[in-house]
Amino acid sequence: MTWTPTDEDIKYYKVICGDKSSTNDEFYKVMLPLVLDMLNNQLCQKFTPTTLPSALKIFLAKATNFFSGNGALKGRSMGTVSYTFDFGTLPSALTDLLKPYDACRKAKFHVFQPVR
């Protein structure tokens, strides 16, 4: 899935975070699809921007905002501009939002009852 957030999408997710900066719209435009892709991979799901439950919209907004700071920046280089983010640094308050939607975890722990 290729998603290019519109100006309205960016405004929507920035409002969730309370981000009033007008200088980081390009960052949101790039990061929102990346965080959504990471989210789908981690949860073994195929959410689209239109099918995201409310809790995951909050996660998408807050995670993107979190990555805009230096807290998740793991490395950077100058040559052809490369940034590396450590997704493991997200606060548990954010990652806890994912638990009800984790299809990978549910699949691993499904217990089959014997038929009698």
Description:
- With 116 residues, this protein is mainly alpha-helical.
- The chain has a two-stranded antiparallel sheet.
- The chain is built from 5 helices and 2 strands; from the N terminus they run αααββαα.
Describe how the helices and strands are arranged.
Blueprint: H1 7-17, H2 25-43, H3 54-68, E1 73-77, E2 82-85, H4 92-95, H5 103-108
Antiparallel strand pairs: 1-2
Helix pairs in contact: 1-2, 1-3, 2-3
Order of helices and strands: HHHEEHH
Q: How many β-strand runs?
A: 2
Spatial separation of the terminal alpha carbons: 44 Å
* Helical percentage: 40-55%
User: What order do the strands of the largest sheet run in, or round the barrel if closed?
Assistant: 1-2
From the helix content, strand content and strand pairing, which structural class follows? Answer: mainly alpha
The proportion of residues in beta strands is 5-15%
Shape by Cα distribution:
globular
Features:
116 residues; mainly alpha; two-stranded antiparallel ribbon
Give a nutshell description of this structure:
With 116 residues, this protein is mostly helical.
